[in-house]
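Chapter summary example: a protein plus NAP.
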Amino acid sequence: MRYAVFGTGVVGRTLAARLAGLGHDVVVGTRDPEHTLARAEADDRGNAPFAQWLAEHPSISLDTFDAAAAGAETLVNTTAGGVTLEVLAAVAPAHLDGKVLIDIANPLDFSKGFPPSLEPVNTDSLGEQVQRAHPALRVVKTLNTMNCAIMVDPARVEGDHTVFLSGDDADAKKSVTELLTSFGWQDRNILDLGGIETARGTEMLLPIWLRIMGSAGHADFNFHIQGV
Ligand code: NAP
């Protein structure tokens, strides 16, 4: 399968590396590839310069968001939630239409410091905004409720724990379920919540996720829903 992973941060890198390791063709999307490759310093979260990471993953390539989408069958959104709509608006509709978009972004607003707030929230979600803005995309919200290392390697957390799915297209959710299974997720731990509007609930898990991380002092944990 040919994947475009939108985003050069730690989540994009983690997903891209795992997909490539499974034998998929992967192009990472960014605003300006030359500018991204020219960054020489670690980012403000300590991630190595992207060019260094890319050199360690020679099967993966870098292109603009639009060019990455053009050649891909499936898209993975790991951009900052506050810019996701802007990023997708800059992609030619022909490069989006009919494709599955796996939306991992959270609409966290850090403009007033930590902890961040959510925007949108309660009566809307980023997943729904993306689906409304691009009706021909088949949006599946998933994996956004855990640290990225766990997304692609659920065995990092001992025992059963849960990954949620939200989306309006049953076939898209089936193909994403198959991908999750290839990452190591057990069927019994993949919980389909229903339509894309259910992304409100999973995006609203972020405030409690952040509090748990603060209390635990690490991010190697996940939610486990029992009894459903
Ligand atoms: P991030 O720093 O939130 O986002 C990086 C990406 O956003 C880059 O590709 C960057 O483009 C793009 N971007 C930033 N500002 C932009 C702008 N003004 N216009 C266009 N694009 C812009 O990366 P991250 O920490 O890897 O997180 C990615 C997403 O995953 C977020 O939505 C986050 O909430 C979600 N998430 C993270 C985790 C985790 O484990 N960290 C877990 C669950 C969900 P360039 O490449 O051009 O710089």
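Key point: The chain has one domain: 2-216.
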